[in-house]
Amino acid sequence: MEKGKVTYCTDLEKSVIISNFERRGWIQVGPEDEWNFYWSFTQNCRNIFSIESGYRMNDNQIINHFPNHYELSRKDLLVKNIKRYRKELEREGNPLAEKTEIILPNGQTATRYLHLDFIPVTYVLPADYNMFVEEYRKSPQSTWIMKPCGKSQGAGIFLINKLSKLKKWSREAKTPLHPQISSKESYVISRYIDNPLLIGGKKFDLRLYVLVTSFRPLKAYLFQHGFCRFCTVKYDTSVTELDNMYVHLTNVSVQKHGGDYNNLHGGKMSIQNFRLYLEGTRGRSVTEKLFADMQWLIVHSLKAVAPVMANDRHCFECYGYDIIIDNALKPWLVEVNASPSLQSTTHNDRILKYKLIDNIVSVVVPPDGIPDARWNKIPSNDALGDFDVLIDEELIDKEEAPPRCNKFNRYRS
């Protein structure tokens, strides 16, 4: 490699990636060649880090995934890590783990975490089947959503409101629900948020982009340009619509097949317009609280996985956070994607994703423009572009947080 020339390798032949790298004067090479920056698929990243590969990265190589990202992005492991995090804080007597009693719709009481109640009640099947049945019986009128742990883009998801429906599925799918029988595929079953905030009568979720450059110390950044993804059909809780995924799932990969899908805006609204809409309809203070609550949720989901993440200094990762907001303006974490789609469905989408990649590179590459795993990973304010510092534990410890970090000092725990 010529001195000063940066080489890159990508598994994803997308123009938003290649045009970004070419604009920087970087040269494309293959994965077998000497590369400095690798935009890889998760599986290829895991292969590089596997003991069998025998590959050793040098100081001038960085890659866009952590080797065990699935601790955050697999639905069952995310739930397990959050539950463990709560228990550990509880054992330490940390006020973050404070609990409170809530009244369920049927009048029964249940105990919930006051500050860390940001994932719907969730169980992993078949392992937690008995615990799920116990919880289900407390409020048999409720709806639950089943998701296969390892799939994405809305594949294999369905809703149930009767235990018999779950048992019928178990028989037909030949997936035993008996906790003692190990099944090929595990599922998570979560209480369905059946009181979502609606806009124009339609359900939506939020996609936010979070860049993590280190888990220990935790360094995370939130991209300012998230968006809402809408269902194409008006929301309806009636039993007859329980199987209509155009009503319940916001995934673009599902909605674009619906007859009412709009190619111009792609069923999307920018987070800035969403914020303006909320300020206009609900007021500024509750809107600000919601946005602060979403940041809180992201930080604590990252803190929950930080102890188990393989915190390799060559790695960074951009996660797609999917959040649903209920009509009480409470945010709920639905899932985290380690490979958020860079597919552009609209013109605005293309602009947003180009900027996202550009800003990611600015944050993760040192000021001299040469990837370096030894760098202290403290970008300048200019390098942040449209990222805001969510948390930087190193700066908090040094008590020298930059101006764009001060408001998040409350995350110290």
Automatic annotation (TrEMBL):
Gene3D superfamilies in UniProt: ATP-grasp fold, B domain
GO molecular function, one term: ATP binding
Broad class of where this protein is predominantly found: cytoplasm
Substrates-to-products reaction catalysed: (L-glutamyl)(n)-gamma-L-glutamyl-L-glutamyl-[protein] + L-glutamate + ATP = (L-glutamyl)(n+1)-gamma-L-glutamyl-L-glutamyl-[protein] + ADP + phosphate + H(+)
Keywords noted in UniProt: ATP-binding, Cell projection, Cilium, Cytoplasm, Cytoskeleton, Ligase, Microtubule, Nucleotide-binding
GO biological process: microtubule cytoskeleton organization
GO cellular component, one term: ciliary basal body
Subcellular location: Cytoplasm, Cytoskeleton, Cilium basal body
Similarity remark: Belongs to the tubulin polyglutamylase family.
Summary of subunit composition and partner proteins: Part of the neuronal tubulin polyglutamylase complex which contains TPGS1, TPGS2, TTLL1, LRRC49 and NICN1. Interacts with PCM1, CSTPP1 and LRRC49.
Protein's UniProt name: Polyglutamylase complex subunit TTLL1
Organism for this UniProt entry: Euphydryas editha (Edith's checkerspot)
